[in-house]
């Protein structure tokens, strides 16, 4: 380093001295000095200090101003070398270079006749745009000048006097400049004209020099559903309808060489086996333009395979005949042509790299407006296929360029789920126009077809990996449940051979694709059938595709797995065989590697291991976890075997294998939990038996799981193991041996004191799961230990730990209420008063935290206040804590917190009202609580919050609990207003809750009427006089609704509703008898009229 510092200083000093010696009027020497600067800086990669840089830049700028034009190219080359990675140090020279009359702006102008000079200026400008980490970037004004300059260069056309290679270098420099602006300058493309102009030139450059293709582009693209402009040169217009595929059967004459332009490279003898060669590539290019009207047929034709493997239909021989070669160039051409092609490929790669950066700079919703300009759509009959990214992926002779195009397509597809979700072609649309949903569906189908064509044609392993990754991205985002079936079947069958490919990256990406298939919108019937197919997989040791004849898209619908088999499946295979994918993943994970699959790839040192390469095993574990998650009903047949796989992985030394083993264990545990949920659709006899689950967890707890949980150097592994332990089935836990139960609890309580926030959060959550287990929640000591552990985590500095702890505290307080109702006084007396006070204070403090903590803290507060006994309320130590906690709940109801927090707070106040020991109706906080709930029930934008507040207002069981007449009437009036506003909402999504809201308000109103006393009647009469018709119609609807489960989770059948109304009538009759006769009219008679109308409407008569 010391030597190089001296070398750099010496070089810089030499260059400065040379400039001092050579005066600007010695132009020949100026040229030589600039050449010296250029070559020295490039060869030695010298870092020029700021002082010398300023001197050398000033020299070059002065030389450009004073010297003759013949020296300018050499001077600009020196300038480009000087400013390279030195942009932030050049600030004071920017006005001279990029100002309104800046030198670089002048020399790079489209009017500049000397292309070499223009190229050198653009290169200098591009080097100025390079960013240096931690250093300020170019000002916005300079960035705008550079962007417009680069854009005008890319928009310019090559004139006849310009050399092809020079023009390519000019385009490359402009593309690098734009990429630097997008990446280093964090440039955000917002304006439509700016985006459209850039995308237009990028699309033009993406196809620059691509053999057999010539396109003209407008100056700008505009967001549109269909391609706005896509015109190819008439001379090179491709024939879109090969004779072999014409529906009419007419053969038509084929012009000499009309398909020759389709090939990526010069083709050899047509009789040679075209395995991944030019003939195959040509035929694939032509298939892309086949206008076969049935997209299913086109996609199924993707099954074409290398010749000599297995004779297919006449389609393949037709392709072979069509692709007889007559290329524009021959193999014997000299180096000039080869060099030119290389430079043209560099332009295409530069445009694609720039496009990749542009995608990151454009909002996805804006980008998808240009979808049709870059993503293929199925061509109409007689029309050519539009050029797209897939054109490059299928036809470009450069593997690197093909890979770049696929990377860009992947970036477009990434995060496109919402955009693609509108696609729908499951039903035949017979309309005069094509709906947008069908257009997008057609595009998705065409993408599948083209990518599968590319898969068969590709010879480069690196590009093959990109194709498969792109397919995985497509599969992850496409809405298959809305599309005609068959797409996934074709992908599934064609990817199978690549599992045994010689390149490990191809094998890993193939597994990624299979993982995407089993995880997308799981469970899909089509995938379920694929998983049920016998394990004849079509693999061979060479990794090349084995031909399949695809069945009709309807076959997946049939229940019998044999209907979905390819015809070359071995005879006698039945669906009782293990699932092919499951067996494949397990064999890769646990079996020693075979010689036939050996890899020589030096990138993976683990290849010396007895097992398959680590990346392959990790991907297999992930696929297995996704399979278990999405299709547990299939995986449960191998429940214990998969448990053994997880065990073996957790016993290994590699932490990444252990981690994914723990994740597999968690998915297995979660799958069983889902089966035993109360609302599960799985029949009891179809579930994994509890005895098997007990055996499974016994194996885990006697195996590596305890050791993994205590593996403190690997926090992520501990976290996953903790999550896995929390997925145990409660019924299975209660059947474990006592020492194993103690082991689980001890481990979790210990991990709750971990210094790592991830581990601590996972332990806190797991304790919140265990506290609900029936065999543990009645143990006062366990509840107390868990409460102390959770309260400790509730004060942690990590927000994630506090959020998990608050959730667990909510569960723990739910347990207190359950125990109070089932065990009675005994549990309440045993539970520590001090601990209860601590819980109340901690929950109150947590209710002031961020929303994720607050939502469960208020839930816990409601439960604790419900749990308090008269002795606690009378205790002076509790008095202040109770008051603070109530104020926290009231303020949360009225706050601007998230809706989940507010409806939990309303629910919590309802819980508080259930405690008869609290002075409800007497204490000052009562008025505040009722006022807050009354305000929310009338005006909150969220209907679920209104429902919870109406429910809370209907909970007090005595009239005294509602306080004074004034307060009672305010609540009544608020509920009447809320009933009238129950359909007023600006958010359409809230409208679906309006019926539940009216149900809850009607229950609350009838409840109040059944408790009303004589002093309340005047206000009740007045309200009924003003709004009687509206109230009556809503109550009638409430009575008619029958059995309905509202948002409060209350089931009220027709009889209960009638009984509530009759109870209110009887109660009011009794009160009004004591008053004057006229008082009876307004309320009791009104309700009797409502009941009579209801009886008349339902055909019932009172006895």
UniProtKB/TrEMBL annotation:
The lineage of its organism: Eukaryota, Metazoa, Chordata, Craniata, Vertebrata. Pfam families: DUF4042, HEAT_2. Residues 255-272 have a biased composition (Basic and acidic residues). Residues 232-272 are annotated as: Disordered. Residues 347-527 form the DUF4042 domain. It comes from Bubo bubo (Eurasian eagle-owl). This is HEAT repeat-containing protein 6. InterPro entries: ARM-like (IPR011989), ARM-type_fold (IPR016024), DUF4042 (IPR025283), HEAT6 (IPR052107).
């Amino acid at each position: 380093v010391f030597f190089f510092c001296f070398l750099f200083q010496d070089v810089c000093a030499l260059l400065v001295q040379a400039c001092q010696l050579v005066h600007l009027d010695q132009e020949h020497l100026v040229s030589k000095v600039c050449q010296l600067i250029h070559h020295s800086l490039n060869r030695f990669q010298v870092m020029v200090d700021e002082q010398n840089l300023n001197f050398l830049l000033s020299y070059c700028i002065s030389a450009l101003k004073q010297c003759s034009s013949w020296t300018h190219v050499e001077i600009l080359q020196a300038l480009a070398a000087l400013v390279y990675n030195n942009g932030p140090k050049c600030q004071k020279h920017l006005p001279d270079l990029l100002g309104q009359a800046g030198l670089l702006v002048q020399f790079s102008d489209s009017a500049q006749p000397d292309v070499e000079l223009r190229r050198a200026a653009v290169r200098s400008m591009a080097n100025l745009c390079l960013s240096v980490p931690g250093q300020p970037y170019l000002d916005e004004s300079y960035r705008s000048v550079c962007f417009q300059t680069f854009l005008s260069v890319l928009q310019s056309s090559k004139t006849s006097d310009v050399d092809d290679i020079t023009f390519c270098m000019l385009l490359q420099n402009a593309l690098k400049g734009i990429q630097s602006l997008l990446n280093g300058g964090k440039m955000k493309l917002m304006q439509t004209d700016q985006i459209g102009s850039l995308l237009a030139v990028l699309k033009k450059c993406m196809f620059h020099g691509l053999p057999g293709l010539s396109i003209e582009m407008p100056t700008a693209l505009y967001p549109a559903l269909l391609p706005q402009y896509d015109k190819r040169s008439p001379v090179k217009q491709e024939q879109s309808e090969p004779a072999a595929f014409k529906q009419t059967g007419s053969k038509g004459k084929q012009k000499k060489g009309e398909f020759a332009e389709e090939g990526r490279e010069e083709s050899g003898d047509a009789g040679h086996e075209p395995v991944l060669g030019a003939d195959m590539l040509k035929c694939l290019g032509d298939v892309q333009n086949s206008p076969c009207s049935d997209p299913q047929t086109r996609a199924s034709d993707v099954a074409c395979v290398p010749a000599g493997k297995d004779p297919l239909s006449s389609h393949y021989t037709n392709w072979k005949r069509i692709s007889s070669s007559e290329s524009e160039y021959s193999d014997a051409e000299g180096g000039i042509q080869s060099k030119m092609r290389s430079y043209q490929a560099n332009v295409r790669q530069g445009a694609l790299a720039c496009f990749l950066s542009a995608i990151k700079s454009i909002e996805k919703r804006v980008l998808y407006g240009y979808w049709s300009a870059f993503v293929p759509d199925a061509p109409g009959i007689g029309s050519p296929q539009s050029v797209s990214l897939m054109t490059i992926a299928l036809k470009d002779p450069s593997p690197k360029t093909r890979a770049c195009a696929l990377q860009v397509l992947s970036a477009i597809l990434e995060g496109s789920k919402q955009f693609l979700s509108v696609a729908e072609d499951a039903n035949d649309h017979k309309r005069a126009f094509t709906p947008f949903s069908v257009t997008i569906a057609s595009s998705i189908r065409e993408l599948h077809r083209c990518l599968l064509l590319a898969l068969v044609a590709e010879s480069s392993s690196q590009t093959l990996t990109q194709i498969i990754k792109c397919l995985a991205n497509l599969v992850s985002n496409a809405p298959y449940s809305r599309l005609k079936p068959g797409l996934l079947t074709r992908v599934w069958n064609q990817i199978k051979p690549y599992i045994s490919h010689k390149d490990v990256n191809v094998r890993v990406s193939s597994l990624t694709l299979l993982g995407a298939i089993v995880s997308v919108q799981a469970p899909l019937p089509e995938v379920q059938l694929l998983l049920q197919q016998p394990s004849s997989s079509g693999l061979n040791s060479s990794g090349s595709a084995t031909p399949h004849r695809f069945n009709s898209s309807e076959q997946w619908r049939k229940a019998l797995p044999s209907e979905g088999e390819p015809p070359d499946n071995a005879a006698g295979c039945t669906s009782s065989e293990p699932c092919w994918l499951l067996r494949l993943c397990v064999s890769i994970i646990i079996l020693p590697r075979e010689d036939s699959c050996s890899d020589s790839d030096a990138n993976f040192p683990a290849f010396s291991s007895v097992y398959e390469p680590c990346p392959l095993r990790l991907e297999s574990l992930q696929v297995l976890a996704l399979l278990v998650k999405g299709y547990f009903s299939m995986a449960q047949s191998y429940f214990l075997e998969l448990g053994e796989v997880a065990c073996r992985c957790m016993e290994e030394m590699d932490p990444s294998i252990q981690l994914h083993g723990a994740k597999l264990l968690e998915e297995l545990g979660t799958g069983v939990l889902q089966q035993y949920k109360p609302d599960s659709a799985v029949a009891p006899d179809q579930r994994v038996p509890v005895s098997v689950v007990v055996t499974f967890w016994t194996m885990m707890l006697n195996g590596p799981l305890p050791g993994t949980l205590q593996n403190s150097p690997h926090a992520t592994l501990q976290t996953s193991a903790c999550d896995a332990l929390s997925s145990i089935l409660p019924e299975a836990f209660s059947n474990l041996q006592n020492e194993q139960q103690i082991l689980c609890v001890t481990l979790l309580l210990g991990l709750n004191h971990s210094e790592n926030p991830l581990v601590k959060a996972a332990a806190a959550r797991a304790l919140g799961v265990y506290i609900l287990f029936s065999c543990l929640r009645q143990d006062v000591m366990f509840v107390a230990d868990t409460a102390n552990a959770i309260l400790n985590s509730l004060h942690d500095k990590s927000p994630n730990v506090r959020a998990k702890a608050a959730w667990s505290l909510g569960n723990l307080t739910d347990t207190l209420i359950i125990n109070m109702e089932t065990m009675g006084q005994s549990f309440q007396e045993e539970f520590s008063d001090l601990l209860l006070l601590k819980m109340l204070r901690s929950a109150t403090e947590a209710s002031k935290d961020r929303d994720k903590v607050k939502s469960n803290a208020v839930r816990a507060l409601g439960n604790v206040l419900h749990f308090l006994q008269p002795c606690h309320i009378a205790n002076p130590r509790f008095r202040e804590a109770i008051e603070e906690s109530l104020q926290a709940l009231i303020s949360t109801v009225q706050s601007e917190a998230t809706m989940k927090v507010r409806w939990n707070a309303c629910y919590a106040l309802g819980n508080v009202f259930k405690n008869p020991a609290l002075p409800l109706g007497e204490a000052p906080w009562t008025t505040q609580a009722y006022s807050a709930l009354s305000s929310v029930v009338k005006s909150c934008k969220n209907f679920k919050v209104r429902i919870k507040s109406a429910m809370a207002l209907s909970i007090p069981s005595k009239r005294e609990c509602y306080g004074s007449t004034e307060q009672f009437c305010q609540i009544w009036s608020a509920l009447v207003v809320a009933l009238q506003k129950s359909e007023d909402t600006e958010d359409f999504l809230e409208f679906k809750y309006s019926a539940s809201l009216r149900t809850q308000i009607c229950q609350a109103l009838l409840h109040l009427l059944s408790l009303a006393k004589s002093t309340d009647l005047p206000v009740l009469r007045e309200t009924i006089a003003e709004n009687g018709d509206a109230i009556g119609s809503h109550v009638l609807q409430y009575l008619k609704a029958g059995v309905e489960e509202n948002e409060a989770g209350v089931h009220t059948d027709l009889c209960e509703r009638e009984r509530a109304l009759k109870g209110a009538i009887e109660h009011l009759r009794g009160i009004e008898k004591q008053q004057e006769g006229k008082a009876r009219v307004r309320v009791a008679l009104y309700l009797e009229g409502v009941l009579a109308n209801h009886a008349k409407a339902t055909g019932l008569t009172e006895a």
